Amino acid sequence: MAAALRPFRLPAFPRLASAYLVNELGNWLGEIALAVLIFDQTDSTLATAGLFLGVHFAPAFLTPPLAARLDGVSARRALPALYATEALAFAVLALLASDNFALAAVLAIATVDGAIAAAARALTRASATAVLAPAGQLREGNALLNVAFTAGAAAGPALGGLVVAGAGVETALLADAASFVCVAVLLAASRSLPTPATEPGEPGWAVKLRRGLTYVRERAPLRRLLGAQAAAFVFFATVIPIEVALAKDTLDAGDLGYGLMLASWGVGMLAGSLVFTMLRRMRLPGLLISSTLAIGAAYLGMGVAPNLAVACAAAFVEGTGNGIQWVALVTAVQELTRATYQARVLALLEALASAMPGIGFLLGGAVATLLDPRASFAVAGAGVIVVLVLAIARLRDVDWHPELEQGPEARLQVPLQAPTPHAPP
């Protein structure tokens, strides 16, 4: 346990981890509040679906350019600016929630905020890489960030529901804005955030974006890994809109059963993050293979579960696999990426994580409509396993050679000294 917590001794990492947690909590709090606001104002499920489309799907096209624009900017400037912009967005949304509701304006601001949140995650990860890699603690730090992300994802919806129910939508949005202000101030006051590695000549954002895509395309391990994960995202998401139908209709477990399934998944996610820390000597390809296989097998198990207990056990296995697979994937992408391209490549990963699940939602809904919820889980499980087999075949003949320097030599690429007194705030 002491080894797992070593990253908290590094300069700036506790603040970056706090920002990562608050970002996820704030995203959920705002999303729940906006969903309630839009449905109450429009009484339209289509309008509410538009919110989720804007928050999750549209940012896939906005995040990479935004990350490219900020790549090379000091983390002490870029991250506070992103979080302060999120605070401003939610403050404006709170005003719209009071007496000036306009659906188009709410959806537009929510979409922009979704892109900002994804870019903030990518840049926070890139900054954490610059802190962790010189100390040789990338895997341990990523595991802790994943715990923060999972805690935010687990507590965020519950917190959002409680705040909205107890204090109202407007108060929830203002509280969200206040949380982002606190994070912006926390990061702006830090003098130990890393100075990012930059390209010679400091090209414009369009050139940076194009070079980032070229960088991925020319490196077979990175290109094939991201391609396989893009396909896996589709099948990972296939069951998300179907889980409620499996719990309430197929298993006749009601709302409580659905909640227990989600809770089992959340506990599994936390367990997976801890397991990843304990397996820090195991090679990343082995962790990716075993965790992805666990997810596919769990989906198949949920599809044939005869009762709620079995479904919850399978959901726990799924969550454990998710917890290991995501942090192993991020770590692998970081290790395969040169320091100067970290932000752009991680932003591309965030974009894939936003765009590809939309296909999975449609696939799961179509299969459940034509057949039944169990069939959707069967398709998801089989799809994950097929993607895994194909990925193993495609990655077997490539040289898994890390491009990210780790240990003391990494300091030559990414200096960790604090900004000079004359640096801009």
Name some characteristics of this structure.
77% helix, 425 residues, mainly alpha, single chain
Explain this structure.
This protein is mostly helical and 425 residues long. Helices cover 77% and strands 0% of the residues. The chain has helices at residues 13-42, 45-57, 59-70, 75-98, 103-135, 138-167, 169-188, 205-217, 220-237, 243-250, 254-278, 284-304, 308-335, 342-370, 373-395. Helix 9 runs antiparallel to helix 15 and helix 12 packs antiparallel against helix 15. The longest helix is centred in the N-terminal third of the chain and has 33 residues, at 103-135. The protein is globular. Residues 411-425 have low confidence and may be disordered.
Write the layout of secondary structure elements.
Layout: H1 13-42, H2 45-57, H3 59-70, H4 75-98, H5 103-135, H6 138-167, H7 169-188, H8 205-217, H9 220-237, H10 243-250, H11 254-278, H12 284-304, H13 308-335, H14 342-370, H15 373-395
Helix pairs in contact: 1-2, 1-4, 1-5, 1-6, 1-7, 2-5, 3-5, 3-8, 3-14, 4-5, 4-7, 5-6, 5-14, 6-7, 6-11, 6-13, 9-14, 9-15, 10-11, 11-13, 12-13, 12-15, 14-15
